[in-house]
Design brief:
With about 350 residues, the chain is of the alpha+beta class. It has 10 helices and 14 strands. The protein has a single domain, classed as B-lactam Antibiotic, Isopenicillin N Synthase, Chain (Jelly Rolls), CATH 2.60.120. Helix 1 (about 30-45) packs across helix 4 (about 130-160). It binds 2-oxoglutaric acid and fe (ii) ion (FE2). It holds the Pfam family 2OG-FeII_Oxy.
């Protein structure tokens, strides 16, 4: 069931909004700002599992360009698309509607191009989608750099050296197979699909856009072109998020939840078929950047610095447990892939 009213977390002012203006760059961050943002991020993720980032420096035009490229890719004949289908080993490539299911009770209407390597050879060819590579690669770098800023901010809040946190995520988008980070470009087509006749209330029962799940990563950055049905589970209730033009959402993933022993719980989320005819007929675009640690990373135990309640005592036993979980992060992700892909 979709969230009951037209109200959203945003319209009720229940989403923390974090302003990244003046934070500097990932290589030259402004320390005092990074510390402050670390505390804001920690509070937001521990209380809500998400925050909206504004003044993050990623121009809307860059997002619009990749949305248009995915539209052009989706318009190619199936035979052309087939050359780029997702490779299960690298997790790179095109995922047709129905190939990736988070919830097996409804058909998930979603096209996704998942980018894990920035090599031009792995992208749609110039003659098929002319500027796919030129648009996707810089955006992937921007989202990597934004993730590196947030990792440093979180490190301060956890009392971990920022360099350590960065070192554990050093392979993001390096295309060498040592890190599972991915940039997913997503298109949710109108509901029902154009070849299935007019829209009716029952479409929400047969179809969904993205089934309920949490992400098997450190955190996810989400940019979206419209509200289009994004919901999160808070206090056991599904709640519509709402859309703040230009903002990028950050959501806690399962690995951050594990390392923080659930001080920052993983956020369950989904995208439902919106109730209004106009929103259903419009389709929705989104970019989700899943920030993963390196496959061989060992993250030190983390505890909040100045947050209440007081940090749990990390005994050697807890350290061992965290270390053990971390060593199994790669296995955890493999298991999730087996459950999700047809
Ligand atoms: O479209 C969205 O907002 C969510 C996408 C998502 O959850 C995912 O790709 O993991
Ligand atoms: Fe997700």
């Amino acid at each position: 069931m979709a969230a009951a009213s037209d109200e959203t977390l945003l319209s009720r002012c229940e989403i923390p909004i974090i302003d990244l203006a003046h934070i500097g760059t990932d290589v030259c961050p402004m320390k005092s700002m990074v510390r402050r943002i670390g505390q804001q991020l920690f509070t937001a993720l521990s209380e809500k599992g998400l925050a909206m980032l504004v003044n993050h420096g990623i121009a809307e035009e860059k997002l619009k360009a990749v949305y248009a490229d995915l539209d052009n890719f989706c318009a190619l004949p199936e035979g052309s698309q087939a050359q780029y289908l997702r490779n299960p080993d690298s997790n790179h490539g095109y995922i047709r509607p129905g190939m990736e299911q988070f919830d097996n009770t409804k058909k998930e209407l979603r096209h996704s191009f998942s980018i894990t390597t920035l090599s031009a050879a792995a992208m749609p060819a110039q003659e098929e989608v002319p500027e796919f590579t030129q648009h996707a690669v810089p955006l992937a770098h921007d989202l990597t750099n934004l993730s590196r800023v947030l990792l440093q901010a979180l490190a301060y809040a956890f009392g971990v050296p920022p360099a350590t946190m960065l070192a554990c995520h050093s392979g993001m988008m390096k295309s060498d197979g040592c890190n599972r980070s991915s940039m997913r470009i997503l298109y949710y087509p109108p509901v029902p699909p154009e070849d299935e006749g007019p829209c009716c209330q029952r479409d929400g029962e047969a179809y969904t856009r993205c089934g309920a799940h949490s992400d098997a990563c450190t955190f996810t950055l989400v940019a979206q072109d419209s509200e289009g049905g994004l919901e999160v589970k808070l206090n056991d209730k599904w709640q519509a998020v709402g859309h703040l033009p230009g903002a990028i959402l950050v959501q806690t993933g399962e690995l951050l939840a594990s390392w923080s022993t659930d001080m920052l719980p993983a956020l369950m989320h989904r995208v439902v078929v919106p109730a209004g005819t106009y929103a259903r007929a419009r389709g929705r675009h989104c970019v989700a950047f899943l920030c993963h640690p390196d496959k061989d990373a060992v993250i030190p135990p983390i505890a909040p610095r100045a947050a209440a309640p007081p940090p749990p005592a990390f005994t050697p036993h807890v350290h061992l447990t965290l270390h053990h979980r971390l060593m199994n992060a790669a296995h955890h992700i493999q298991k999730r892939f087996r459950e999700t892909y047809a």
